[in-house]
Amino acid sequence: MDNRQLWENIFQLSQAVFRVTHLFPKEEILRRHLRERITEILYQSSRGFSLESADWRLQPRDIFMERNRLLINDIHNFRFLLFTAKNFNFVEEKNLAVLIKESENLLEFLDKKNKENLNLLINQNTTIHERNDQNFQSPLSSSGITLPNSDVPKLIRKSPTSNRRILQRSMAENLTDKDMIGFAVLNIRQQKIIDYFHKFSEEKVRLKNIADEFKNIPPRTLRQDLKCLCDNGYLERDGFGPGSFYLFVKK
Question: What is the CATH number of the domain that holds 232?
Fold first, then answer.
């Protein structure tokens, strides 16, 4: 996997993250943190490992190592958030397991790349004075990451924060019903709730009756599951609070 393929893999991973987190409760903080973290990773990887965007106070060797180190740290943090989300059963476990596996593949590649960069730069005996040579090029410049002409938002000359927002907003706005095919998977609790509603056909069911049926589910978790089912079109809610009703609408 070269630098170009690395960026494309991270871009595909970011799309999957937005699709899976679309099924999280909207107020869930992990939904926002996962999206922000993968957007940061995508942004950092799009910059490549070129000397031009690095801190000139550092030696060239350190620049490459520092760029990789920061990206690796971001992916480790992203992976930790995935494991945390996995414990809440917002979506079927296998969806998050795939994302975790992909993040581990990225870490393995970057660790290998770090060693290659170090060996390459040591062998070339690069010094900080060489950056003033007009003929000097980054050892990785020929394989640096570049943005494709289509399918991804174009990064413009704005602040890093603005470019991150462009990426995040674009991925969120481009989600369609077709994109969600294969991701709208119910967890075990939510499937049991749907099975329960099948008994009532087109009848509305009071929240109190649902709570009585699922006494083994904590009230807060039950409310989150019902909200998730409403957000994904399985149920409709009528009213507010303990006196509200739910109607099964997706068959």
Answer: 1.10.10.10
Which of the listed residues 150, 173, 196 is the one where a domain comes to its end? 173
pLDDT of amino acid 10: 87
C-alpha to C-alpha distance for 115 and 121, rounded to whole angstroms? 10
Q: Please choose, from the candidates 22, 39, 29, the residue with its C-alpha nearest in 3D space to the C-alpha of residue 78.
A: 39
Tokens linked to 126: 């690069």
- Structural domain contains residue 163: yes
Strand pairing of 205-206 and 235-238?
unpaired
Residues 87, 48 within the same domain: yes
**16 shares its domain with 92:** yes
Residues 75 and 112 in one domain: yes
What pLDDT shows up at residue 157? 41
- Residue 12 buriedness (CB in 10 A; 0-12 / 13-18 / 19+): exposed
* Structural domain that includes position 110: 3-173
180-226 tens-digit pLDDT: 433 444 677 887 888 888 887 678 888 888 888 988 888 888 888 88
Long-range contacts, 35-40 (Cβ 8 Å, 24+): 35/168, 35/171, 35/172, 36/168, 37/74, 37/77, 37/78, 37/81, 38/10, 38/13, 38/14, 38/78, 39/14, 39/164, 39/167, 39/168, 39/171, 40/74, 40/164
- 216 near 165, Cβ under 8 Å? no
Residues 138, 196: one domain?
Answer: no
Structure confidence by residue, pLDDT tens digits, 143-165 = 343 334 434 444 444 444 455 55
Is 83 found in the same domain as 196? no
Joined tokens for residue 245:
């009703």
